[in-house]
């Protein structure tokens, strides 16, 4: 049974249950690990490494998140080792995830808030947010496939867990 700690979490839980598309990240036993749930079912477990990437497993195998060595881009590779997507420096206020010909743009509202909007045509169409440092994070990214949703959520958690001082301005 989920414990609702904040009044607005109740609203988010109700809307999430109605929509059924949201992901929920619950902190695991290790400091930088999370269980990712959709419809109250565990979809995957994400283990991140401080500023260096991480791993997650979906039904078709293990995916690896790695950095470019300079800290300016992170990539996700599928179980066969094929690069699926690249994220351009998610610690910046505005960042993107590019997969094939599709680009997903994100914008962080504030350096101090743990909220990132998925933006299309200048309008927020989705989000990744965490109400406070140790809370569960939610992601509603309606236009993204599940693999890219988990990748974007893992990157947001990686940035937030690495600390606000590492967040770079635009």
Your description of this structure?
It is a single chain. This protein is an alpha+beta fold. The chain has one domain. The chain has 2 helices and 12 strands, in the order H-E-E-E-E-E-E-E-E-E-E-E-E-H. The chain has helices spanning 7-19, 146-162, and strands at residues 23-27, 33-38, 41-49, 53-58, 61-67, 73-77, 83-88, 94-99, 102-108, 115-120, 123-129, 137-140. Strands 1-2-3-4-5-6-7-8-9-10-11-12 form a 12-stranded antiparallel beta barrel. A hairpin with a 7-residue loop joins strand 11 and strand 12.
Q: How many strands?
A: 12
The portion of residues assigned to helices is 10-25%
Largest sheet: 12 strands, antiparallel, barrel
Q: What structural category arises from helix and sheet content?
A: alpha+beta
Shape: globular
Poorly predicted regions: 1-20
Distance between the termini: 40 Å
Keywords:
18% helix, 44% strand, disordered N terminus
Could you write a compact summary of the structure shown?
This protein has 170 residues and is α+β, with helices and mostly antiparallel strands.
Blueprint (SSEs and pairs):
Elements: H1 7-19, E1 23-27, E2 33-38, E3 41-49, E4 53-58, E5 61-67, E6 73-77, E7 83-88, E8 94-99, E9 102-108, E10 115-120, E11 123-129, E12 137-140, H2 146-162
Antiparallel strand pairs: 1-2, 1-12, 2-3, 3-4, 4-5, 5-6, 6-7, 7-8, 8-9, 9-10, 10-11, 11-12
């Amino acid at each position: 049974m989920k414990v609702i700690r904040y009044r607005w979490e109740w609203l988010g839980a109700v809307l999430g249950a109605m929509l059924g598309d949201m992901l929920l990240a619950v902190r695991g036993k290790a400091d930088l690990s999370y269980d990712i749930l959709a419809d109250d079912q565990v979809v995957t477990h994400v283990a991140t490494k401080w500023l260096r990437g991480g791993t997650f497993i979906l039904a078709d195998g293990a995916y690896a998140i790695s950095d470019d060595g300079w800290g300016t881009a992170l990539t996700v590779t599928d179980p066969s080792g094929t690069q699926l997507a690249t994220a351009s420096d998610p610690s910046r206020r505005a960042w993107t995830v590019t997969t094939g010909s599709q680009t997903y743009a994100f914008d962080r509202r504030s350096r101090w808030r743990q909220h990132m909007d998925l933006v299309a045509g200048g309008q927020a169409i989705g989000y990744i947010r965490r109400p406070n440092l140790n809370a569960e994070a939610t992601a509603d990214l309606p236009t993204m496939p599940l693999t890219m949703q988990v990748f974007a959520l893992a990157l947001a958690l990686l940035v937030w867990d690495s600390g606000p001082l590492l967040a770079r301005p635009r």
